[in-house]
Automatic annotation (TrEMBL):
All residue ranges annotated as the Aldehyde dehydrogenase domain in the record: 25-476
Record has Oxidoreductase as a keyword: yes
SUPFAM superfamilies in the cross-refs: ALDH-like
Domain of life: Bacteria
Keyword terms of this UniProt record: Oxidoreductase
Protein name in the entry: NAD-dependent succinate-semialdehyde dehydrogenase
Keyword Oxidoreductase: yes
Length: 481
């Protein structure tokens, strides 16, 4: 099929077990970034809807907390299986609303289901401790309990995986959730809610709102019902929500932007690194917090790397995600498209060379070609602001200490990549890089069962692994005489 044969599903809010469709609410358009056509309408929550979602989360909290963790896990695993059963229609809607290639959308459905399974298995492992006490002091227990109702906010770049793992971790821990996914990509998030409800999630345990982000976040975070705030998205919005949470003395979990450095030493197989870098840069059209951006390449191999990587990027096919020959879809929205040209212009003005791509065309969809900028000075915009698009920049280095200092120089601290055949260096470098996740001789960070998170302004806390469930647990000391 093509993007124009839409078949995009109707979008409904989920408010304390009630579905609210577009007919009875103000709506916003959902656009297909491959064609710029309006493919659907998302209903916008009213103040009453937000209040009802909060009431549901508060009312359902105690019963969900007291539901056996095995039963919570079983619901999550049933929902994961329903996502797998529905993978084709969900992936179709995802490609329509986000633009990513259909095969990647299928992969995102499968990956999300696997992550939900993984988090479900953590539900019964919320162990506490029993402390030995001397003499007649009785028993001392430290138990874990769910933190309480969670307000969650998720972006459009992984429109199923990010809500999926956030919601699954909180539900596994025994928390109820009110989530506001991105208005640009609502169908993927609604598919998650549908799967959970169909799997047996009780009313009120999950509410899903779309609407005015500021109104929803201010209302939810200020409400005494909400006990934890969890956000994935930009650093600016993350800081804003953390300030709101600070005013209400509520804990926050933030997964924000990244600006991943790639350290390519002179002992590598240049062709192999360039080939891997191509896949990593094209993935999700560069709209990933872990996307490689700053390629620091050793002087001895820089020219060779730039030539090969540039050749591969220039040959990459950009197009509609339903076209089987497409290797990279459009940018997901006009904001990302508009953000690209200034990165290129600024780098060129500062002396960089455009080796591949460099200019987009939004006449049909938000298409920006895979772009390589070479010899980019450190003060260029692209070397310190997250492009969140298919732009890679290279710079020469000669010395390990120098390149580590440059890699660590930004306020970001999410992901970094090291390519070297030297075993000592491969062990040493990950320790020296001030980030939450490092991959050596491969791209990609995170896996279904692992910690996933950043440092510095990239945020704190984990989106994955057992740590993700612990984000939604608190300790309680119980002393018994
Ligand atoms: P944005 O900050 O405008 O929006 C990000 C998300 O936050 C959206 O879903 C939006 O609805 C929501 N949001 C915005 N204002 C809000 C508010 N006041 N309260 C609650 N939610 C609010 O960014 P954008 O233009 O959508 O994306 C661009 C930037 O976002 C990128 O440069 C990148 O740094 C960052 N981003 C990061 C991730 C990630 O995985 N960490 C994902 C998507 C975007």
């Amino acid at each position: 099929m093509t993007s124009t044969e839409s078949g995009y599903p109707d979008i409904e809010l989920l408010v304390d077990g009630r579905r609210i469709g577009a007919a009875t609410r103000e709506t916003a358009a959902v656009e297909n970034p491959a064609t710029r056509e309006v493919i659907g309408r998302v209903p916008l929550a009213t103040a009453d809807d937000i209040a009802d979602a909060l009431a549901g989360a508060g009312r359902a909290a105690e019963a969900w907390r007291d539901t056996s963790p095995h039963h919570r896990a079983a619901i999550l695993m049933r929902a994961a299986q329903l996502l797998r059963d529905r993978r084709e229609p969900i992936a179709r809607a995802m490609t329509l609303e986000n633009g990513k290639p259909y095969g990647d959308s299928l992969g995102e459905v499968d990956y999300t289901a696997d992550i939900i399974d993984s988090l479900a298995t953590e539900a019964p492992r919320a162990y506490g401790v029993v402390l030995p006490t001397a003499g007649d002091e009785g028993r001392t227990l430290v138990v874990t309990e769910p933190v309480g109702p969670v307000a969650a906010f998720t972006p459009w770049n992984y429109p199923l995986t990010v809500p999926g793992r956030k919601v699954a971790a909180a539900l596994a821990a025994g928390c109820t959730v009110v989530i506001k996914p991105a208005e640009e990509t609502p169908a993927s998030a609604v598919a998650l809610a549908d799967a959970l409800v169909d799997a047996g999630l009780p009313d009120g345990v999950l509410s899903m709102l779309f609407g005015d982000p500021a109104q929803i976040s201010e209302t939810l975070i200020a409400s005494p019902v909400i006990r934890k705030v969890s956000f994935t998205g930009s650093i600016g919005v993350g800081k804003h929500l953390a300030r709101l949470a600070g005013d209400a003395a509520k804990p926050v979990m933030l997964e924000l932007g990244g600006h991943a450095p790639v350290l390519v030493f002179d002992d590598v197989d240049v062709d192999e690194v360039a080939r891997q870098a191509l896949g990593a840069k094209l993935h999700n059209t560069g709209q990933s917090c872990g996307s490689p951006v700053r390629f620091y390449v050793h002087q001895a191999v820089h020219a060779q790397f730039v030539a090969r990587f540039g050749e591969l990027l220039a040959a990459a096919r950009t197009g509609d995600g339903f076209d089987e020959t497409t290797e990279m879809g459009p940018l997901a929205n006009s904001r990302r498209f508009d953000a690209m040209a200034p990165f290129v212009q600024d780098a060129v003005e500062r002396g960089a060379t455009v080796v591949a791509g460099g200019a987009g065309d939004d006449s049909v969809g938000y298409y920006w070609p895979a772009t390589l900028l070479a010899d980019v000075p450190d003060d260029a915009l692209v070397m310190h602001d997250e492009p969140f698009g298919p732009i890679a920049a290279t710079s020469v280095f000669t010395d390990e200490d120098e390149v580590v200092a440059r890699a660590n120089a930004l306020p970001y601290g999410l992901a970094a990549y090291v390519f070297t055949k030297d075993a000592d260096r491969a062990l040493r470098l990950p320790r020296r890089l001030d980030v939450g996740m490092v991959s050596v001789n491969r791209f990609g960070v995170g896996a279904r069962d692992t910690f996933f998170g950043g440092r510095k302004e990239s945020g704190f806390g984990s989106e994955g692994g057992p740590e993700a469930v612990h984000e939604y647990l608190v300790k309680k000391l119980i002393s018994q005489g």
